[in-house]
Design a protein that fits this description.
alpha/beta; 9-stranded mixed beta sheet; 8-stranded parallel β-barrel; 21 strands
Length: about 425
């Protein structure tokens, strides 16, 4: 459910016509629906009602200050994968005790930053990292609260680039080795074992992989208990998928039920790290058609947003609905590639897409672009990163201004020998 709907053939975000935002901020821009974000957070969090839980929103899906602030207000914590995301979370007012830190390649400065800040838990992904965290904790005189990220070797049945819980993936420590890592951790005075963690992949549209991962983790928790290691917190990671086209992912409620069943009779506190499911369908990328072009065998719609603004189609061959912001009156539907201005053949937003007829100057909405959209955007081809806007009811505000040409060179300098 989201609040991007047509009224009288015009697409609105809540009560604001997207056309009006385009007139005010120019194109392209990302628009997020406050009401949708709030609804998604509450539905997800509510699915775990009764359990001791913390919903740590995964910052990398969309790390906008406004969105982090909104989730923080709703009681959420944060799942981070870098020092930069820790900074963003603290800036947005998220309590350090609600922040968990995953990632295979944490640097010393990032580990120190996390320890000094006093975050809830570091999710460790290798034995070398465990040793380093122990050593830094001792140096700083701050005990490190840790979990081991377990790779349960389950197939999340998703795109290979976003599966993370298979043996061949770089993430986590496999189940047998994790047992050893916990035994080692138990001997290290400066680490405090608080949890166990997994994250098996992203855009998961079936319940079975989650069930399998849960079963595997619960088994490991029992084995650890037998060796005297008590796990207090289970971090299930993120990964719940959304509908981009015709996928039918499990409801948060169904997912919650599976978790509830697995945790019955335990006293485990639960951490969840949803990203996409909270923000994906709460955001849209609005772009303007620059040109139409008919090739030898193809129809092209050339728009002012490109792969640097929304990488998912190019990177994962991902599908996004592309819809007119104002429905045309009549005209035959057409089949076209919707492409950006970038000098790469991989620069497309949709391919061989049947769509309503469009002309230069028309606005198009690229739907379901709230997750891994702006956060993956770049300045490739010295394109300015676009504006981000949030709408609530009949109001809208820019939450990140469009970059300027001056921003492009702001961090650069010419070496003295070239002056
Ligand atoms: C990316 C990521 C998430 C969020 O994944 P979604 O599929 O967006 O829910 C959660 N935890 C970790 C460790 C991640 O890397």
């Amino acid at each position: 459910m989201h609040y991007f709907q047509y009224h009288d053939s015009e697409l609105y975000c809540e009560e604001v016509p997207l056309r009006r935002i385009a007139e005010s901020v120019g194109t392209p821009f990302y628009i997020y629906s406050h009401g949708t974000l709030k609804r998604h957070f509450e539905a997800f969090d509510g699915a775990f009602q009764g359990l001791e839980r913390l919903v740590c929103y995964s910052a990398k899906a969309n790390s906008s200050q406004a969105i982090l602030r909104l989730f923080a207000r709703l009681g959420g914590g944060l799942d981070i994968v870098s020092g930069g995301e820790l900074f963003r979370g603290l800036q947005a007012g998220i309590a350090p005790g609600k922040i968990v830190y995953s990632g295979v390649g944490k640097r010393i400065d990032e580990i120190d930053y996390a320890l000094q800040t006093g975050i809830r838990m570091l999710n460790l992904e290798s034995v070398e990292e465990l040793h380093l965290v122990h050593q830094r904790a001792e140096t700083l005189g701050k005990r490190a609260p840790i979990a081991i990220r377990v790779n349960p070797d389950v197939d999340p049945l998703t795109h290979p680039y976003i599966s993370t819980g298979l043996k061949k993936n770089k993430f986590g420590i496999d189940t047998a080795a994790a047992l050893e890592a916990y035994r080692l951790a138990a001997t290290l005075p400066w680490v405090d074992i608080v949890g166990i963690d997994c994250h098996i992949g992203s855009q998961i549209t079936q319940a079975a992989p989650f069930r399998d991962a849960l079963a595997s983790l619960m088994e490991l928790i029992r084995e650890l208990a037998q060796t005297g290691i008590r796990i207090r917190t289970l971090d299930m990671g993120g990964g719940l998928g959304i509908t981009y086209n015709d996928e039918q992912p499990p409801d948060p409620a169904d997912y919650g039920k599976a978790v509830r069943e697995a945790l019955a009779g335990t006293e485990l506190a639960l951490i969840l790290e949803p990203g996409r499911v909270l923000v994906g369908n709460a955001g849209v990328l609005v772009t303007r058609v620059l040109y139409r072009k008919t090739g030898d065998s193809k129809e092209f719609v050339i728009v002012d947003a490109g792969m640097n603004d929304l990488l998912r189609p190019s990177l994962y061959d991902a599908y996004h609905h592309v819809q007119p912001v104002v429905h045309p009156q009549g005209g035959a539907r057409m089949v076209a590639d919707v492409v950006g201005p970038i000098c790469e053949s991989g620069d497309f937003l949709a391919r061989n897409r049947e769509m309503a007829p469009v002309n230069s100057g028309d606005l198009l909405a690229v739907m379901s672009a709230g997750a891994y959209g702006y956060s993956m955007s770049s300045n490739y081809c010295s394109r300015l990163r676009v504006a981000e806007v949030m709408a609530a009811g009949n109001r809208f505000e820019v939450i990140r201004r469009r970059e300027t040409y001056a921003d492009l060179v702001a961090g650069e300098s010419v070496p003295g020998f070239l002056a």
